[in-house]
# Entry
Amino acid sequence: MLMAFAMAAAGCAVDGSPPRVSTTVMHEQSTTSTSAGTVSMTPMASTPTTSMAPTTQTVESLAASTTSRAPVTITVLYDNHAIRAGTRADWGFSCLIQGLEKTVLFDTGQNGDILLQNMRVLQVRPEDIDVVVLSHAHADHTGGLACLLASNPGITVYYPASFPADLTRTARAAGASVAPLSGPVAPCSGLLITDPMGSPSESALLVETARGEVLVTGCAHPGLVEMTVAASGLLDSPIFAVLGGFHLSAVSPGQVDRIVKDLARLGVERCGPAHCTGDAATARMKAAFADGFIEMGVGAAITF
Ligand SMILES: [Zn+2]
Ligand SMILES: [Zn+2]
# Structure
């Protein structure tokens, strides 16, 4: 990963309890569905741990690693589907990135109570989170922030600078540090937040792993391929995997096939559709990527 970007400082002052976030209306509504279907990856262990150590199946043997970086685990905490007993599905997205210098929460889902419940079941402690990155100002990605900050105000929150001012006020009232983005930023080694693009302005995460770069998207409103191309422009190596919401429920099968082809052309080998991707597009991507498909849903923990 190219790291010629500002390293942001963490830390914040502690304040009283925050009001709820009410940044924007949701961009889309849908029924919530819960899937208890079989998965190709093992959800996190049910026995309590204090280290939050991942106990997941790796995507691929680290013997094939291209770098000496320690394993990085991405755990889905909030999604339209749930694959781990005891967790709740709800429209929205959030995932946790562990194994880097800092523990990072990408998006916060829509409902803070559901987010915290899923975190409890998956043995993720709010106080272990150093950084929150909000991809874009839709409530199904920002709605859980206030509850999270009430549990841990010592978080630094990154978000596109075009976010509504009430989010900044809410985060500051909770005692958090805020870091509006107007370009790519690296909160720590191995993590890059991409330049906000499109409307609504949306950033993605680039996570450096032993297997290669992993791009995590919230909704990919600017277009999955467009965001992958833009993120690739920040790197000197191809993107190995793309995960997250792809916003493809309204596209035709032919368009999905073109997206798959474009991703392959860009060097993407693994694909984990979640959240707003849509069941039809997800099924098509699953067939196309075959062994490279990553099953998402609340409780999925993918180690690279
Ligand atoms: Zn969304
Ligand atoms: Zn959205």
Remarks:
- The two ends are 16 Å apart (CA to CA).
- The CA atoms of residues 162 and 201 lie 7 Å apart.
- The first helix runs from residue 112 to 121.
- Helices lie at 112-121, 139-142, 145-151, 165-173, 224-232, 253-265, 279-289.
